[in-house]
Amino acid sequence: MLALGKRPHPELPPFDYLEVATAPVVIEQMDAGGVDLAILDGEAAPAGGLGIAKQLKDEIEHCPPILVLTGRPDDAWLANWSRAEGSVAHPIDPIRLTDTVVSLLRNRPAA
To answer: Where in the chain are the domains?
Structure first.
């Protein structure tokens, strides 16, 4: 959230963030709708963002874009497997993160 700020690009409206800590709450919030982009921690335990991303893509018909934060650049294939539309590796580069988020939001399909 600090890397992106409230308004990372002038073409996008200001961001509102919803931070959750457990897989069940992520799924509950995504099921409820109103989420434009999900950023998941691929290194979280016990349920990692990669598995949650795959579950969301398999179960939600009009799932918003998902960005997964991975432990290293070589894990991009895991993000691809999870069907996430984007990935950014640790250590987080704020410019790369912002570019990826803006691209995903600009190119998201209409619900």
So the answer is: 23-106
